[in-house]
Amino acid sequence: MPSSSPPLPLSFDACYRAASGRDRRWDGRFYLGVTSTGIYCRPSCPARKPKPENCRFFPSAAACVAAGFRACKRCRPDALPGSRDWDHRSDLVARAVRGIRDGAVDAVGVTGLASSLAVSERHLRRMLLDEIGATPLQLARTRRAHAARTLIEQTTFSLTDVAFAAGFGSVRQFGETMREEFGVAPSQLARGIVQDRPGLSPLGSPSVALRLQTRAPFDRRATRAFLAAHAIPGRDAIGADPDSPTSHAIDVPGGTAAVTIAWHDIPEVALQQPGMLGVPVSLALPSLADTMPAIGAVRRMLDLDADPSQLAAAFDTDPVLAPLVAARPGLRLPGAREPHEFALATVLGQQVSLAAARTLQGRLVAGYAAPAELETTAPADGQHAFAGHISVARIAAETPETLQATLRITGARAATLQGLARALEGGLDIGPGADRERARAELIALRGIGPWTVELIAMRALGDPDAYPSGDLILRRALGVAGAREAEQAAEAWRPFRGYATQFLWADFLAKATPATAPSSSTTPRKEHS
């Protein structure tokens, strides 16, 4: 029987069985290349399955293209959300994949990516070829091509605008890559249903409406409630109606973008069809070049690359989690839109309620964010001016006494905030592509930062799905244990998805503890610092 290289999540025989059974649970986790046609498909493709000797299996779409295959026009494997299989790993290849997914090659090139990983370009290229079957440039090119096709199908951008919005350096490069990926020129790709015409925001910057793909089910109510509970004044605008849109500032290379999410246009979980689901968002951008970074931030913020079926399979025999997952099949693990902002906000939120934390975070924005850069139509109060990014450099340069007076916090909290800001300014990396264990070690070494804070930052800023705040009070109550050590022992079987397990435990406990008439807080644990 043929062998598969590079490594796959399943053996060749298991991959062939999954593809023969059109098992959509494996969509995005491996791809089928058909040597007799030169086409690659998702496992659930409805086309007649080829003979085993004509099949090759790959762990990524980029590996398929690198091997000479182009995307199937029927099952559209290029339209799949990303796989989170790389997110629970902390090795070099996983960090590189996360960095490329978040635009590192576009921002700093392969040289800069390799430097951030402390390896040579040659070594990075060899490692990615061995593990994934594609080079860093091929992975980045496939990422741009898939984004470009989405823009072609969902907007009325000119092809030139599509090329630069998707991160291509030239129209010629755009055309060559699209032919390589899809077998046709960009002009031959059909325009799909246009969600909205791209236009200008109130200040004249580009705006575009898209439906970002995610795997169903997606719990819109729980996700919106989470964002509402953690909204920062000046950076988020939340309407009172639980179905109303929300707007959020997003930091991008060109300045501040804004995303508005149309929650009412997402079906309830019970009404969602299996497969892919489109989440409707509108982006107001400083420039077209900020399209990809903004989309990436929104995908992290809403956890749109989650795979509910993978989680269900991981927890289906667990006596604690299986019923919780069955009751909340579309629950997500929202990420931080900007790692530095989240870390600083988390320090301010230690040992206080969510309401008090929001007040302190609003003061942080008022005192240390860039001036309002962008206006957008916000659901809470019409035209809304969002503050720009929070300046870590300004906070690092302050004295603890000034921070204490400006934010009205204790001297100890001010010293911790300044210490964190100085560490971030000095190069502490807490983004999705960071070395997680190094980041944890550097965070815990800072005075005033304990394990709870470190794991919250790991969960939402570093994007570690296995992060686990074992000292959290609500988590311990949900598990019925007295201490962090017992909580650690109870969760050992949940690796590498303890972060998701925590989210399910928080949601279930708080839902039971919250009166039905109270505003939803099902995914907002009380801040408990240990």
UniProtKB/TrEMBL annotation:
Listed EC numbers: 3.2.2.21
User: Keyword annotations for this protein?
Assistant: Activator, DNA damage, DNA repair, DNA-binding, Metal-binding, Methyltransferase, Transcription, Transcription regulation, Transferase, Zinc
User: Needs which cofactor?
Assistant: Zn(2+)
Pfam families membership: Ada_Zn_binding, AlkA_N, HTH_18
Sorted alphabetically, the Gene Ontology BP terms of this entry are: base-excision repair, AP site formation; DNA alkylation repair; methylation
Name of protein: DNA-3-methyladenine glycosylase II
An example Gene Ontology CC term for this record: protein-DNA complex
Q: Which SUPFAM superfamilies match?
A: Ada DNA repair protein, N-terminal domain (N-Ada 10) (SSF57884), DNA-glycosylase (SSF48150), Homeodomain-like (SSF46689), TATA-box binding protein-like (SSF55945)
Q: Does the keyword Calcium apply?
A: no
